[in-house]
Amino acid sequence: MNKGLFFRSICDDDRQAVVDLWSHCGLIEPEDDPAEAVRVALDSENADILLAFQPDAIAPELAMVGTVQVGHDGSHGWIHHIAVDPNHQRRGIGLRLAREAESWLRHRRISRLSVLVKTTSAEIVLFFARLGYLIAPRAVMQKFI
Ligand SMILES: CC(C)(COP(=O)(O)OP(=O)(O)OC[C@H]1O[C@@H](n2cnc3c(N)ncnc32)[C@H](O)[C@@H]1OP(=O)(O)O)[C@@H](O)C(=O)NCCC(=O)NCCS
Fold this sequence. Notes:
By secondary structure, this protein is α+β, with helices and mostly antiparallel strands. It is about 30% helix and about 25% strand. It has a single domain (about 5-130), classed as Aminopeptidase.
């Protein structure tokens, strides 16, 4: 289904395409600063954005079809902004992206990871459940400073 899928880390030239995909996938909230999230991933050794590409049906170049942002604080890893272009969803690309993020963390000896999923997103909960994630009995508390 996803023949020819190829993954690589984000580079400078990908900034706009990544933000556009997140926007297209409904991942940007009014309070978010996606350009800043991209900058952190580009500048930090403890964070990355992994991109999935596929040969395009008409254009000669590869088309970006998905992203996952991954990072850690030394002991705990996080996945954010996992997104697959709506035209390419339900073909296993999301699973492959999540596994790429997991191996990025494993490679850095991080074995515990979490993802924040909106409680209203039942289908996203099902997606992560399929990958073996369990709902943790925690409350997320936030403050903007
Ligand atoms: C979440 C997302 C990345 C999944 O990408 P995807 O490539 O479509 O996922 P996959 O094809 O790898 O799905 C794997 C499995 O997850 C489950 N799943 C995925 N999407 C689902 C949905 N909408 N409803 C129910 N189960 C779903 C299914 O078990 C699926 O396997 P199946 O297709 O054989 O039934 C994609 O839906 C997306 O970009 N959503 C918008 C952005 C978003 O909300 N991201 C999450 C932020 S926390």
